Amino acid sequence: RKVARRPHILDLHEGYEVWWADRLSQRKRGKIRKAIRDGVVVEHGNSPEFVRRYYDLYLRWTANRAARRRLPLMLANWLAARREPLWKFDATAQKLGDDLSIYIASYQGQDAAGAVFLGAGRGAVYWRGASDTRIALPCNDLLHSEMIRQACLSGCTRYHMGE
User: Fold this and answer.
1) CA 6 to chain centre
2) pLDDT digit string (tens) for 81-119?
3) Three-state SS at 94
4) How far is CA 77 from CA 57, 93, 139, in A?
5) Stretch (H or E) spanning 84
6) At what angle do helices 48-69 and 86-96 cross, to 10 degrees?
7) What is the mean pLDDT of the chain?
8) Strand (E) positions, 4-163?
9) Residue 138 has what DSSP assignment?
10) pTM of the full predicted structure?
11) String of b and e for 126-142 (b: at least 16 CB within 10 Å)?
12) Do strands 123-131 and 158-160 pair parallel, antiparallel, or not at all (unpaired)?
């Protein structure tokens, strides 16, 4: 069976301000502003600490998903580590250096969402993301906004959001 694949690529030729004002819906802008108003803080880096924080979010996301699907936690964690092993993120961060940045949104000192951003040349990619779904704030929207801002500041004209 064939499955159609559609990449979602933002055109950033006109810059962040045009994307924010003209391309992003008023509802999304409101969600992002709410997250900021509520005290969500965004940090980014590519150190082993950021890799570990992202991976901890990934494992929390896995546990939340396993609970919703009534899967045993041990099985879910085993599958998660097999699909996305920690060493892969460590090695990628080391190899890519400044071309990789891990964005972490935290709320009241607790990491709520994380995303892996790859940017080089004229293109940027949202590579992976995970969030703690128990924190009911639009942290992922804020992370994307910050990664798109960084892409524009770096001279990227395309932002690949996945398929």
Assistant:
1) 19
2) 999 999 999 999 999 999 999 999 999 999 999 999 999
3) helix
4) 12, 22, 24
5) none
6) 150
7) 94
8) 9-11, 41-45, 100-107, 110-120, 123-131, 158-160
9) -
10) 0.91
11) bebbbbbeebebbbbbb
12) parallel
